[in-house]
Amino acid sequence: MATVVVGLSGGVDSSVAAYLLKEQGHNVIGLFMRNWHDTTGTLEGDCPWYDDQLFAELVAKRLDIPFRFVDLSEEYRRRVVDYMFAEYERGRTPNPDVLCNREIKFDVFLKEALKLGADYVATGHYCRKVEEQVDGKTVYRLLAGADKNKDQSYFLCQLTQEQLSYALFPIGDLQKPEVRRIADEQKLATAKRKDSQGICFVGKVDLPVFLQQKLSANEGNIHEILPSWRGYGRTMDNADVEALSQPFRYTVRDGKKIGTHKGAHFYTIGQRKGLGIGGRKESLFIIATDVEQNVIYVGEGDSHPGLYRKALKILSEEVHWVAPAEQMQPGEVRRYQVRIRYRQPLQSAQLICREDGLYILFDEPQRGIAAGQFAAWYDGEVLSGSGVICE
Fold first, then answer.
1. Do 119 and 233 fall within a single domain?
2. Which of 58, 94, 100, 184 lies in disulfide reach of 87, CB 3.0 to 4.6 Å?
3. How far is CA 131 from CA 40, 100, 103, 128, 161, in A?
4. Is the sign of the CA dihedral 78, 81, 82, 86 positive or negative?
5. Which of 47, 200, 353, 390 is catalytic?
6. Mean pLDDT of the chain
7. Is the pLDDT of residue 105 over 50?
8. From 47, 100, 353, 390, the catalytic residue
9. Can 200 be counted among the known catalytic residues?
């Protein structure tokens, strides 16, 4: 049987993944990675990674498998956290979990696992992998997890064929309650442990406090844009997908100042918490940020037209196909199901490939499209590709 290195995180999912692999007869090694030291801005615990390591060790001991430790914090800071700071500084909304999987778990961590003699690397992700033969070549497909409430395929949307060739997802066919039941039956220390939340390996954070490690607070104005703003009256045909993909652009003359903020780069499109402005019939939502002028634009109510767009654009160099042979060519149009954030229900859309990039035209306007987010598209249960929204 194969030698499989499991990324033991100290959570129940990776614990059960290790158990299932051992039951299948594989030579299983548990490898815990420490990726973050600083607790600035974290909301829970002084040293969350220490607790995670302790639980991971307890699981390895219970399963009677070797336990190893590796510190990848320097690579994580350089490849994930620095990227996150840079994106927020530009007024964009990055997804560090997607980057963590592409750059750390299935790159740096994979290389460490190979040093231990691994044939495969396994994680506790709720997703599946299948192999197909296409024109005599093996093609790896990334599928949504069987548990639709926990499907984590979106977080793996940037994986390559080589990375998938090494990947195993032992719990991808299970429902979360079943995973908990197995952990309880096997008396694993993580059986009743809460699922981790927040930024991958950093935890739940107060984002402005966390970002102030690198980004300075800078007071600016909050301007309200009314639903009657002239720009919302523009009517465009679906054929003009380039115009539809453009965000609304406001100036301070378009709205009234209603408050102040601590720095436009601390906020993101669609956010409603942290503004400190009350006394409204409905919540205020951020509909645009301008980091150059340090201005935030808000609108009242979840149905405010400034929250919605019909299309988005991904630059050609930012488009990723899980199976490169299936990439679209300029002039080609296909239909897919798309999501622009984790746990968002899949949305029907057309993908339109042009020389300057890939346009996604949704059947229905989408709420809270933000530059820097990843859009991922699916063909049935198969995650076909993804890309970074350019603006």
1. no
2. 94
3. 43, 24, 23, 10, 11
4. positive
5. 200
6. 92
7. yes
8. 100
9. yes
